[in-house]
Specification:
Aldehyde Dehydrogenase, Chain A, domain 1, Aldehyde Dehydrogenase, Chain A, domain 2, 2 domains, 7-stranded mixed β-sheet, 6-stranded mixed β-sheet, binds ligand TXE
Length: about 475
């Protein structure tokens, strides 16, 4: 049984209190590792290491910091296979998906910020003959990065890469459900030449060590990705100490299909946006809104394509979908399917847990629900989508905007004016037109309403992880 450790001051160390949590492999339902359940003492050690490292790291030339992060990106690429295998075992996602998306994107995250920091510029204003003002964007100090279980190394690196690039030291906590790839990153950081104490990785329960990271007086900014309920707690805690906080939270994303769309493309991509990663991506389009004229045709083709999806062992190349991340999460997803029936929905496909070891659930399609019912209002975060119809553009926009969330939206139409008009009317931070999950890392990433505050990505993240200071000099 593998027993992993915290990564503090460039070394792997046992938790001070010797407490551990079982780590279950979703594909088999069996415990395959133990992880530290860290405590305040572990956090204090990590903060002390970060404090010692900060003067070195924050005053290191941008070029040298950039080279270390480029090297880390190279090492992630070099270790793609063993990182992907661990990611798949830890999360339950298909191995091919971890190899194709999660791990390459983790490398890209470091690569992107290794370059972005070298090109990052600040502002200056010159009043000729009178004064010069310039804005200094200094590192903040020690920052806390807390990430979820659905895209483990992908989102872990999406937070720590800009924080490190900007010259901060990091105390990071991956989800206790999927700690393994973050654990492996420690060694790679050392090999990349990152000074000890710059990156510290603590494992354990969110309400314990996660909460402690947010509360600690030394962490001056918090970057959090996770559920909206948890985000409320994190935001409330951080605001007590006037900390900068970025919250990437849940979604209940509309996928709006107009009659004038490329139907074949819309169906094909909608299957992906519904069920990729077992539907455990906050950007999944879980509410499919279809214009009346093509509702029956879309429904027929969408069910046909969904039936082709194979749910199976994440290690098998033929598995389109793997296992949900935990027994608890599967029970939550299944409870929403039961709720949907109670609310009058018809299960067109799926709604069944597979009778095999592990946490496997069929892709599920439901129709006939009211837009305001709980199934259509609350985030399920699994392979469950609802089909709803609309008769005109105004109704489509109203229904799309009818939840507390505002993360992403997909719009299918060949009408250019409509594409812009509907995009501007939908209350989502991210809009895809005739595509899904195409990402340019320079763009601001995040949602509005209950989907969070702040934006990650591009220079937004570098600005978040810096402290702007305006200096005015009289000429
Ligand atoms: O979140 P949780 P999960 C959302 C997704 C879903 C949820 C699933 O839509 O709603 O996140 O992820 C730690 N103080 N997004 O279940 O439970 C916890 O240990 C500090 C949206 O993981 O909120 C874990 O490391 N930390 C997102 C992390 O918070 C605490 C993309 C998240 O746990 C804590 C991915 C506390 N009090 C998922 N309690 C997006 N919008 O991009 C828990 N944690």
């Amino acid at each position: 049984m593998q027993k992993i450790q915290n990564f503090i001051n460039g070394k792997y160390v046992d938790p001070m209190k010797g407490q551990y949590i079982d780590n279950v492999e979703p594909g088999t339902g069996k415990v395959f590792a133990q992880i530290p359940n860290s405590s305040q003492e572990d956090l204090d050690n990590a903060v002390a290491a970060a404090k010692d490292a900060f003067p070195i790291w924050s005053t290191m030339s941008v070029d040298k910091r950039s080279r270390i992060l480029h090297k880390l990106a190279d090492l992630i690429e070099d270790h793609l296979d063993d990182l992907a295998l661990m990611e798949s075992r830890d999360n339950g996602k298909p191995l091919w998906l971890a190899k194709a998306v999660d791990i390459p994107r983790a490398s890209s995250n470091f690569r992107f910020y290794a370059s972005a920091i070298v090109n990052f510029s600040s502002e200056a204003q010159v009043s000729e003959g009178f004064m010069v003002n310039y804005t200094r964007r200094a590192p903040i100090g020690i920052v806390g990065c807390i990430s979820p279980w659905n895209l483990p190394l992908y989102l872990f690196s999406w937070k720590i890469a800009p924080a490190l690039a900007m010259g901060n030291c990091v105390v990071a906590k991956p989800s206790e459900l999927t700690p393994m790839t973050a654990h492996l990153l420690g060694n790679l950081a050392n090999e990349a030449g990152m000074p000890a104490g710059v990156l510290n990785i603590l494992h354990g329960e969110g309400k314990e060590i996660g909460q402690a990271i947010v509360e600690h007086e030394a962490t001056k900014a918090i970057s959090f990705t996770g559920g909206t309920a948890t985000g409320k707690v994190v935001g409330a805690t951080a605001s007590q100490q006037f900390k900068k906080v970025s919250l990437e939270l849940g979604g209940k994303n509309p996928n709006i299909v107009f009659a004038d769309c490329d139907l074949e493309e819309a169906v094909k991509t909608s299957v992906k946006s519904s069920f990729t990663n077992q539907g455990e991506i906050c950007l999944c389009g879980s509410r499919i809104l279809i214009e009346d004229a093509i509702y029956e045709e879309f429904k027929k083709r969408f069910i046909e394509e969904t039936k082709k999806l194979k749910v199976g062992d994440p290690m098998e190349a033929g598995s389109n979908m793997g296992a949900l991340v935990s027994e608890e999460h599967l029970i939550k997803v299944d409870s929403y399917v039961k709720l949907a029936k109670e609310e009058g929905g018809a299960i067109l496909h799926g709604g069944i847990r597979l009778e095999k070891e592990g946490f496997y659930y069929e892709p599920t399609i439901i129709e006939g629900l009211d837009e305001n019912c709980r199934t259509n209002q609350e985030e399920i975060f699994g392979p469950v989508v609802t089909l709803n119809r609309f008769s005109n553009e105004k109704e489509a926009i109203r229904v799309a905007n009818s939840t507390r969330y505002g993360l992403s939206c997909t719009i299918w139409t060949t009408n250019l004016k409509r594409a812009h008009r509907v995009s501007h009317a939908v209350q989502s931070g991210i809009i895809w037109v005739n595509c899904w999950l195409l990402r340019d890392l320079r763009t601001p990433f995040g949602g509005m309403k209950d989907s969070g505050i702040g934006r990650e990505g591009g220079n937004e993240a570098l600005r978040f992880f810096s402290e702007p200071q305006n200096v005015c000099i009289k000429l």
